[in-house]
Amino acid sequence: MVRHQPLQVYERQLCLSCLTGIYGCRWKRYQRSHDDTTKWECLWSFILFCTFCLLLVWFYFWLVAHNDYNEFNWFLYNTSGEWSDGTVPIVATTAAGFAYITLLTALALCHIAAGQQLNLHWLHKIGVTAALLTTIVGVISVSQMWGEEWDVIRMSLQATGPFLHIAAVVLFRFQVLLVLIYLFVLLTLYLVPLSITSPCIMERNLLKRRPQIFGYQGAPMLAPENTALSFQRALSLNISGLEAHVTVSFDGVPFLMRDRTLRRTTNVQKVFPEQQLDDASFFNWTDLLRLNAGQWFLRDDPFWTVQSLPTKDLRQIRNQSVCSLERMLHLAVSSDSSVLLTLRRPPPDHPHHHSWINDTLDTIRLSGIPQHAVMWVEDRDRQLVRRVAPGFQQTSTKKQPAPALHQQGVSRLLLRYNQLSGQDLRWFSSSNISTTVYRVNELWLYSLLWCAGVTSVSSEAPHILRKLHSPSWLMSPEQYGLIWITADLVSFALVLAIFIFQNFHMIRWRMSGMHSYNPEQIMLSAAVRRSSREVNIMKEKLIFSGKCVCEKE
Prior knowledge:
By secondary structure, the protein is of the alpha/beta class. 51% of the residues lie in helices and 8% in strands. It folds into 2 domains: 15-172, no CATH class; 212-465, TIM Barrel. Helix 6 packs across helix 20 (477-502) and helix 8 packs parallel to helix 13 (325-334). Belongs to the glycerophosphoryl diester phosphodiesterase family.
């Protein structure tokens, strides 16, 4: 007589092994557990979720801040004195960290769905802690150095909010949450359009003219900034005007330079190594003409555009020099364009420290450009400028009430794009005050400002903005309301259908007319509804002894 030894039969669970192995290094079956998660591991799960939320905001911030990457790099240059693209390592590490934390969060949710005990491996705990602390340090650093940039999140949501709402409503029905929390959040998603405001939700007949485009320092993505070639490239795009920073040389010649020194945009280190840290205004114009202002563009490639430029343009770029204000004004006159000038006063020991405004005014007057085509930003001696050149468009960088601006003779505001609300734009427009916002390099931002009613924008990417002939999207409040209600109804119908499908057996049992409590029928019905996880546990505990019994479940 053959006696069979007790055997324990297991089913292969490769997916579950990978799930628990990657998350907690529990690759063996005996290492897994269906017990409740300990409080310590619950705390780590909460930390993981908070890290995911923080990294999500941080990653989204850097995605929508692409419009201002060059501004961030310029801040770094002014701090360190060396030019480098600091956004590349930040975006790369943020993307890698976000992908890693997202994977761990997804694995944690899968653990909960599979009924497995959460047990994050200690290496992952170190990684989560490092990601959390690094992100917190990054958020604090950006808030201190570049705090105004956080408004880009709010503005981007104005451009994408309606579509994010629809996507959230569609996707949320697949989440597995507690019923009360699920219903509360779902109801919130259904009603969130009541709080969504976007300038692009408007009647088409209320849309104002397309904002004029000013090339900031020319077209600095196509040619070195503040060079004659850059201004020529910008004007060839049929834009409205040019914007530049003006300073005065040691011998009284106004020229164009944004930085305080010449180190970033010229080869002053080779030509005048002893003077490379001197203020740019302490160079004579003849010395400035000896400097090359194009080779740095090919070397540093500040906008990652050099590879896309034709060979002919590369040869021209190599031979660029510092551009004078007179040269830029002649280009503007030949193309019937406007200029927006921001002046930088020379240091106190400069020979033209007190005459810098008069030197600039003389150059403008001799260039022959019409006065109405000049937008004057400098606040100092504004009354003098108004007497000498009454036709200038007086422009201010200070946001003030309209009566105060009119009293100063200001007819235009030059502000950063996050400093103007829709209400501000309506007030200034009704008071005949034009608005120019800077620095607008992305199509979504240009489209949003167009809908908001901005008069003009200053851009480092005029070749990109000019391609947009109408807002990216525009819908009336009635159309958006119809889309909102339709999306909510479809989502509710799908949620209801999924609920009925998941509880089909219970509903059929209740509607089948089974009014008598037959124990056998109840047991069979319960067996049908038993979850696959419970069946697997029963299989693992099943011991065959005596004779073999084959049973298929």
